[in-house]
């Protein structure tokens, strides 16, 4: 059976790299996002690379009325369903401090919107008894840090959700992978200055495929982020709250 990948946030740099990789494997792709012109171009590229089918679908994590269209397109494909979530937004913390209303969109983009769609998809995944979910979070979700704690809170919530979904769907043979990248060379981090342990979208995608093959539950990419975040999580709170990391 041909795999069908629902790709949420399909216009992001990492999502495009992931789309190219599964298209070359002959999968069908449902490209879901806000920018239809970009999605249509991505669909044409995916088809040229060998995708069995490439369907652009309007999706906005802040507008639940767009969710049914994604699900219907996926079910109509007739393939084995999989889903990869690349949705997220990260306003500067200073902008959120000035306008707390920005919190709503950040949480919807990075947590509640994708979680709601996955919850709609879960019964279909459980019924087919196989497939995979790839949820892209962030190392920022491992501990609330001064510079991006609202974004970190959203990604922490999404990681906890994925953990529960993994517990649920794993009983039916569906694998759920939580991905925690550090800084990736994408538009999201432009303007933040030099970042430690920077990686590329292509490297993240290669790590995702390796983690899927090995049935890993959580992936830190680059790998160095696992020991780094382990140390950060162990710093006592009285000390941590005085630090500027």
TrEMBL record:
One of its GO terms (cellular component) is membrane. InterPro entries: NAD(P)-bd_dom_sf, SDR_fam. It comes from the Bacteria. Keywords: Oxidoreductase. One of its GO terms (molecular function) is oxidoreductase activity. Signal peptide: none annotated. Belongs to the short-chain dehydrogenases/reductases (SDR) family. This is Short-chain dehydrogenase. It comes from Thalassorhabdomicrobium marinisediminis.
